[in-house]
# Entry
Amino acid sequence: MVLKTLSELKNIIAGGPRKKLILAAAQDQHSLGAVIRAWKDNIIEPILIGDEEGIRKICAENNYDITGLTIIHEPDLERSVETSVKMASNKQADVLMKGKVGTSTLLKCVLNKEWGLRTGNLLSHFALFEVETYHKVIAVTDVAMNIAPNLKEKIAIINNSVACLVKLGYNMPKVAILGAVEMVNENMEATLDAALLSKMNQRDQIRNCIIDGPLAFDNAVSLESAQLKGIRSEVAGDTDLLLMPDIEVGNVLYKSMVFFAKAKVASLILGARVPIVLTSRSDSEQAKYDSILLSAAASK
Ligand code: COD
# Structure
């Protein structure tokens, strides 16, 4: 099974229990809009933590009916994130979501050694794009958390993402390890790592997926480009997951997909005790809603 559109995430969660979602620093219009829509759609049971007056003002201005919704008043930003993370850590939530607070403030709390959401695994960011010019959704990792992953970290990032794709119903997702070129070049570290990751996959050191790399972006997503270059690959042109060499490449790809290609996106932090919806403050309400769908599917 592969997903063709993000709205198919609804089929995966259909009939399942509502997930408890904590929205940290909830006084954020797009986040509240997405959370309330998912609540009305019976996908989540939200708890809003933040400045109650600010939350109620946004809801009144946008005609959001929040009768019956739990609000915990915590006007201080850092304390609202800390309370949210502690509650998620105490199993009071299936999903944590970031509201009006900076990414690194939330991540630092999540990584807190005493009361954070660490599991011993590497945490990584996973984004799922629906773009008209590709025949199915395509996942991209890591565009927002790990800055310059080494080989060991790349393996953990692949494992997190593949486990998530398997929860979404994928069987042996195809993983392209991106480089600037499709040949191993000893001066380009990304291509060396890609070759090692491919060989580790062939030898069953990385399981449950088919890895090939290095692949340049064109051969990863276009069979025609791969054939023109004479590349024989099970992954080329049919990639399910793109592994980025570092955060700069990943973040620029993410933003160019959204701003130039008008892609729809859903994203999550994986590897913590609960999935974390960490869309950026500039992401649309739709992106936040789709990320909530993804988090509900990933917390199955
Ligand atoms: N998974 C698990 N543990 C981690 C991870 C991870 N991905 N990253 C750090 N840790 C642990 C370390 O082992 C250490 O024990 C502790 O956390 C602190 O590690 P530092 O000092 O490297 O981390 P910080 O607190 O300085 O920074 C961690 C961040 C995640 C905040 C940092 O990596 C970061 O700023 N990433 C980019 C976030 C960002 O700006 N994204 C852009 C979004 S658009």
